[in-house]
Design brief:
Number of strands: 0
Largest sheet: none
Radius of gyration: 17 Å
Structural class: mainly alpha
Number of helices: 3
Helix content: 55-70%
Length: 65
């Protein structure tokens, strides 16, 4: 009987990264808010900071090889 191979492969890592990333619309909104904040010299919103933190966590969990 053959055993299942659960080792991470490039395809598995790509799929896991795609699922783990925040919604693209949320990312675009956060980027726009960030640009507006920089243009207006005001602090980044909590939403923008949360999306950026989520992105950093995904990159740390699923680093590119």
């Amino acid at each position: 009987m053959s055993r299942l191979d659960h080792r991470p492969t490039d395809e598995r890592v790509r799929a896991a990264r795609a699922i783990a990333y925040p919604d693209q619309g949320d990312v675009i909104d956060a980027l726009c808010e960030g640009i507006e904040a920089l243009a207006g010299s005001r602090p980044l919103s909590a939403k923008t900071l949360a999306v950026l933190a989520e992105r950093r966590a995904v990159k740390a969990r699923y680093p590119k090889s």
